[in-house]
Write a structure and sequence with these properties.
Elements: H1 3-14, H2 19-44, H3 47-50, E1 52-53, H4 58-68, H5 73-97, H6 109-137, E2 144-148, E3 158-162, H7 166-198
Antiparallel strand pairs: 1-3, 2-3
């Protein structure tokens, strides 16, 4: 791919054709990623080390932590961010290869439809991620986790485990839910902005 294609691709990703799309890029790329990268590491970085069960043995702690966290929240949210970026990245790659200018996307129906489809796909992926987050993490992190250790062939089947910094993790969970809701609202608003521009209710950039 030539440098011109790379430049067009990067400009398209950083400067979408709509005002709300540009705000979404700023919110998504800056605030959400910063929140996850910096604060997420501070909250979840030492969780496995401080997760302790009764009896406090390494094999029990490790077994119960894997049961408590089938996937770590940082990995889940990082995957969510990457996957949600894919539809837009494909569109802007297509636009770069076809030498489509950003200001022309809202002028031709085929380009506009393709772009709206990529935004709609982002909404679907965000909603799916929201549902998966509920299934994996719920809305609250309890201080005590009851672990089933029957598979370890111990005399006891249920043991109590202490979850470190559970209140901070609850706040972080709510924040990530909020970010998902905001991005979905922005995507819906972007489709509405495109519709208004196509109908002539708003001036095209």
């Amino acid at each position: 791919m030539s440098p011109n294609y790379i430049r067009s691709f990067s400009e398209g990703c950083l400067r979408p054709p709509t005002v709300i799309g540009q705000f979404h890029t700023l919110f998504f790329g800056s605030i959400r990623m910063f929140f996850l990268g910096v604060l997420g590491f501070a909250v979840y970085g030492n969780e496995a080390l401080h997760f302790s069960c009764d009896p406090d043995k390494r094999e029990v702690n490790l077994f119960c932590y894997n049961q408590f966290r089938p996937i770590t929240p940082q990995v889940f949210w990082a995957l969510q961010l990457v996957i949600v970026l894919v539809p837009g990245a494909f569109f802007h790659l297509y636009a770069a290869c076809k030498s489509i200018k950003q200001e022309d996307i809202l002028q031709k129906s085929s380009y506009t439809g393709f772009y709206i489809f990529s935004v709609f796909l982002r909404i679907v992926l965000e909603v799916v991620a929201f549902w998966l987050q509920i299934q994996l993490f719920g809305f609250k992190v309890n201080a005590i986790y009851m672990c089933d250790v029957g598979a370890l062939e111990k005399k006891f089947n249920i043991t109590r485990c202490m979850v470190p910094e559970h209140f901070e993790k609850t706040i972080f969970l709510i924040a990530m839910y909020t970010f998902t809701v905001i991005t979905v609202i922005l995507c819906v608003a972007e489709i509405f902005e495109i519709s208004c521009r196509r109908l002539g209710l708003l001036k095209t950039q």
